[in-house]
Please model this.
Amino acid sequence: MKHLLLLIVAIAAFSAAAGAFATRVAHAADLTVAPAVIDGNGIPDDMFNYTLTVTNTSGRQLNIFASVYELTASGTQPFIDPASSNRPELLADWIGISRGAMIFAPGETKTIPMNVTINPYATAGDYHAVVAFVEGGTRDEAEKNLNGAPQALVNFTVISDLKEELQLVSFGPEKRISSGFPMTVDYAIKNTGDIPSDPGGDVIFYDRIGHELGSVSVNPGGDSIAPGTTKQFTATWNGAGGSMGEYKVGLEATYGAQNAQLADTALFWILPWKELFVIFIILLILVIAAAVFMHRGYAKRHHRRRQLIEHLLKNKQVIDLKHPHHHE
Model:
């Protein structure tokens, strides 16, 4: 019985996989796209116009969506909409093509215009993207059918002398001496290069002997700094594991494809002045009390000595040391 159940499950799984494969083949067989590969090269801001010829080879009407996605080392990123981003590192963002639904009658051929505008901040290198034509009643449905869809591969080589360069303008704690945590560190980074750049890394807090106590992201919002502009950042540490004393804070940031570095350090003190003031007042009171006690003791001894002298004088028991034989 157990073996029969396993056999049924295996047959069902095989049937589902075969059905999915057949569906992908059917989608690919319903359309043809030409050319299959587009190669280009240029410099930032260059614009190129192309046409893609798409033919419905099936005997039925098709509702088709164009999908542009990037080819990266980590895999594909389907349905990237250029209107939602303008990142210089993605060829998919440079491609302009109609994203609306296109209806193909049986056997119909359409010429689809497409353009590539190299981002003005693009760095030199090779870029790759795919333009796929996917069937679906809606764009969401079409996205599920992306695998195996007919497509055109777009390859571009960019030649550019643009540089990515950042400069640390200022760095330091908001207060060099603070009564307690949290501690706030302010720093400013200027883009002295030609393209936008988003720094990464950490602001790290150390104790006086160099042990790391905590860290905060240099750029928690992932903000990009435009060329010629300076952006102010603030890092706040809650002081977990910290106490009264001297601390060091260091900035260790990286940016760009070459992981260029920005670094700096500063010192600050945590001195809880309110608590120290209370301790000072208590010590002052103790000192004053001790002084009063000592003064009173001295006064008592002086008073007793004076009384003794007066008593001796009164009873004529005082001896004249200069004339010891002359007594009154």
